[in-house]
Specification:
about 200 residues, alpha+beta, DNA-binding, Jelly Rolls, 9 helices, 4-stranded antiparallel β-sheet, homodimer, about 50% helix
DNA sequence: CGTCTATTTGAATGTACTCAAAAGCGGTGG
DNA sequence: CCACCGCTTTTGAGTACATTCAAATAGACG
C-alpha cells in the first residue's frame, strides 16, 4: 500500500500545482477517487459502453482508439504518467463511447466517476477552475495537432512527434504510432528508412 | 444602440443556458465586455501579436488561420454567431499568436480581455464553470475533427462538413474550406465535380 | 468594361495506400 | 535449447489519392 499513497500524493501535487486546496478539500477529493490497476492489453473502456469516469494515469501507458467499419484502428490519444484520459464526449453526454481505452503496459490509474465529479464540483467550486485550466490546455494542444494534420506531411508529423516524445518509438508499437499520425504502418516504415539516411 | 442591447441579451442567454447568474453578476459580466464591429477582411488578431481577448460572435462570420513558411494559409477554425473565437495558446500564455483571425463578413463581436476575464473569474467563481463547460465541448469537438483527419479521405471530410454546416459552401470561399479540410482548392474542385454526379 | 480574385480543367508528378511476401522478434512448449 | 507460432515490421511492386503547375473560365466589384 505504500506505493498507493504515493499515487494520491502524485495527483494532489498535480492539483495543487494549478489551484489551492485546503487539507480537508484534498481529503475529500481523494475520497472520491478509486485506485485501479490494469494488465497490459486490459481495457479501461470499450466502444459502445458508456464512459463513466475520467482516469488520471499514475503509472504506465494507455492508448485510446476508434475502430472503423473496416475494422481499422485509429489512435486518438495516448496517455502517460500525470495525464488524464477518457472519452470526453461519452463522459459529458453519457452516450455510448466511440473510443476504446486500453493499457499498453501494467497501468495504475486513479479514477473519478462522473457523478462523483459533479458532486465534488458543487462542494468544492475551485475544482471548476482546475478542470477549466486542464481543458484549456488540452484544447490548445489539440489545436496544434489539427494544424499538423492539415498543414504538414506524414513524415514531418513523425519527426515532430519524436521531438516531442523522444522515446515513444520504444514504448509504443509503430503500427499505433502510424495510426496516431494518420498514416499506414507500411508507410511509416518507409519514412523511418529514409530518416536513417540523414 | 437597440441592436447593441440585443447582443448583450444574446450573450447573457448563452451564459444562462449553461450556468445561473444573478442580475448583478450578469451586469458585472456585461460591464467587462467591449462591443466591436469589423468590416470584411478586417483583422481581429494577427500572427505575431499577443492575443489579449476572447471574442464572442454576435453577428457575421470569422476565420482563424495559420500562415506557414511558404506563405500558404491553413484554416484552423471558423466562427459563426453564438461561437467564441481566439488564439487559445497565445491567450493563455500571453505569447506571440501563431494564428490570424479575420472577418469574412461584417462582424459584431463582444470581447473580453484576458485580465478582465481573470478578475471576473475571481469575483464570480461560477464563471469558471461556464468556461469549463465551454472548453469541454470544444475539446470533444476537436477530438472528432482529429479523428476525421486521420481516419477518412478529403472527399469524406468535405461531405461531413457539408452535412454539419449545410450552407458553408455559400458562406465561405472554397479555398478556405479546402485549407480547413487539409486539401488543396484544386482537389476540392475535383471532389465537388464527382459529387455532382451522385 | 476591365481588373482582380476564385474556381475549374487538364496533365504530369509526388505522396501515401493496398496487397503480398519476407524478415524479425518474443513467447511457449517439447 | 531449439522449433514453432503469432504478431510486428520491413520490402517491393502496382495503384489510388492528392498535389503542383499552367491555363482557361467564371464571378464580384468599381
Amino acid at each position: 500500500m505504500s506505493d498507493a499513497s504515493n499515487y494520491y500524493e502524485m495527483i494532489l501535487d498535480h492539483l495543487t500545482a494549478r489551484i489551492n486546496l485546503t487539507e480537508e478539500e484534498q481529503q475529500r477529493f481523494c475520497d472520491a477517487l478509486t485506485l485501479r490497476r490494469l494488465l497490459p492489453k486490459q481495457y479501461l473502456l470499450q466502444q459502445g459502453d458508456i464512459c463513466r469516469h475520467e482516469s488520471y494515469v499514475c503509472k504506465g501507458f494507455l492508448r485510446s482508439f476508434y475502430v472503423d467499419d473496416q475494422g481499422d484502428e485509429h489512435t486518438l490519444h495516448f496517455a502517460m504518467e500525470d495525464w488524464w484520459i477518457t472519452d470526453l464526449r461519452s463522459l459529458i453526454r453519457q452516450e455510448a463511447a466511440t473510443r476504446n481505452i486500453v493499457a499498453m503496459e501494467p497501468v495504475t490509474v486513479l479514477q473519478i466517476e462522473k457523478h462523483k465529479r459533479d458532486e465534488l464540483l458543487k462542494e468544492i467550486p475551485v475544482l471548476e477552475r482546475f478542470w477549466r485550466i486542464l481543458n484549456e490546455n488540452a484544447c490548445a494542444a489539440q489545436d496544434e495537432r489539427i494544424l499538423d494534420n492539415i498543414a504538414i506531411t506524414g513524415a514531418e508529423r513523425y519527426a515532430r512527434l519524436l521531438k516531442k516524445y523522444p522515446s515513444i518509438d520504444q514504448r509504443m508499437p509503430l503500427k499505433h504510432i502510424a495510426s496516431y499520425l494518420g498514416i499506414t504502418p507500411v508507410f511509416l516504415s518507409q519514412i523511418r528508412k529514409k530518416q536513417l539516411k540523414n
